[in-house]
Write a structure and sequence with these properties.
Elements (H helix, E strand, L loop, with lengths): L2 H29 L2 H29 L2 E3 L6 H14 L5 E5 L6 E6 L3 E7 H6 L2 H16 L2 H28 L2 H47 L3 H26 L13 H10 L9 H9 L5 H8 L6 H11 L1
Parallel strand pairs: 2-4
Antiparallel strand pairs: 1-2, 3-4
Helix pairs in contact: 1-6, 1-7, 2-6, 3-5, 5-7, 5-8, 6-7, 7-8, 7-12, 8-9, 8-10, 8-12
Length: 323
């Protein structure tokens, strides 16, 4: 995927989400009491902004992250400092997440500042050069303001979800003459709002996948031999995550903020099953090559539509072109 096509796709998708939201909200305003709808939208926006501001603290608690100083891990600390300088971002706070799944994520807010977390599982599974490529990917998210962009994009579907839910509840459980007069119209607007919510959600997921490609590209072009290193890292992350997904699914914790991860844990199990013949003792490049030989099925394409991350085969193909 070329850089120009990627940028145009991201801009176009975000513009489409905003356009659909504005159009339907204007229509809804014309049929219902404007004050109620505006108040609802204001509440949803305010709630999402508050959630964004405190999200880093929630993430730290959920994933049991701990700050890392230079004395704690000088090699990792130096790596993130050098890469931050090269990519052109302020060095984020380095965190370690006590999780067996190998992964990494970037997050932050104006209150908490920017942070990059790597899991204890990743430090055990990946080589230093592969960790460097993964960190480069996460710094790419910070450089492109992906946390802020996705927060803004996600607010719009949320408005229509709460609009649809509240309107349908009102039409179903309203009382007296008000229910008789406007119940049918309210129910229709509520159903339409839910449909718009699902359509916008698909667009937001598409935007998320494009931004993953964009962060991959940043890592590949910023880290020496970055395309190869990131390809190997992604292949090993998918394989390892699939092996332990059953265990971690029982303990919970990956679904709430899975969009943050470098690889979606929910589809890793399926990807790992498809590359089971590779096993864990194959050479890194051999593992990448075997994943690349997989054919992308219709089911893969459908699953990808509902995922925050691109299909691993397509990601590796994009990295091969950059290499």
């Amino acid at each position: 995927m070329s850089l120009l096509r990627l940028r145009l796709g991201m801009i176009g998708t975000l513009a489409l989400v905003i356009a659909i939201s504005t159009l339907f909200f204007t229509i809804a305003l014309s049929f219902m009491r404007a004050l109620n709808l505006v108040a609802l939208a204001f509440f949803v926006v305010l709630f999402n902004i508050a959630q964004w501001l405190i999200a880093p603290y929630l993430i730290d608690g959920l994933y049991r992250t701990q700050g890392v100083s230079e004395s704690d891990s000088p090699k990792l600390y130096t790596m993130i400092e050098n890469l931050s300088r090269k990519i052109g971002v302020k060095t984020p706070k380095l965190m370690i997440a006590n999780m067996p799944i190998p992964n990494a994520f970037a997050y932050g807010s104006p209150v908490a500042g920017n942070r990059v977390a790597v899991t204890s599982g990743m430090l055990k599974e990946l080589e230093d050069e592969e960790i460097e490529a993964v960190v480069g990917h996460e710094l790419g998210h910070l450089k492109h303001k992906d946390v802020q962009v996705m927060m803004i994009a996600s607010v719009l579907p949320a408005i229509f979800y709460y609009l649809g839910y509240s309107v349908m509840m009102s039409s179903a459980y309203g009382r007296g003459q008000r229910r008789e007069e406007g119940g049918g119209l309210a129910a229709l607007i509520g159903i339409a709002s839910m449909i718009v919510y699902w359509i916008l959600t698909l667009f937001v997921l598409g935007l998320s996948r494009m931004r993953e490609y964009y962060a991959d590209r940043t890592s590949a072009l910023s880290v020496e031999d970055g395309a190869r290193k990131l390809s190997e890292a992604l292949a090993k992350i998918v394989r390892s995550t699939g092996r332990i997904k059953t265990y971690y699914g029982k303990t919970g914790g990956t679904n709430s903020f899975k969009a943050l991860f470098i690889s979606d844990p929910d589809i890793a199990e399926r990807d790992e099953a498809a590359i089971a013949a590779s096993r864990m003792f194959r050479a890194d490049q051999r593992l990448v090559e075997e994943i690349l030989t997989r054919k992308i099925t219709t089911l893969d394409k459908v699953v990808e539509l509902f995922s925050t991350h691109p299909n691993v085969v397509k990601r590796l193909q994009a990295l091969q072109r950059l290499a």
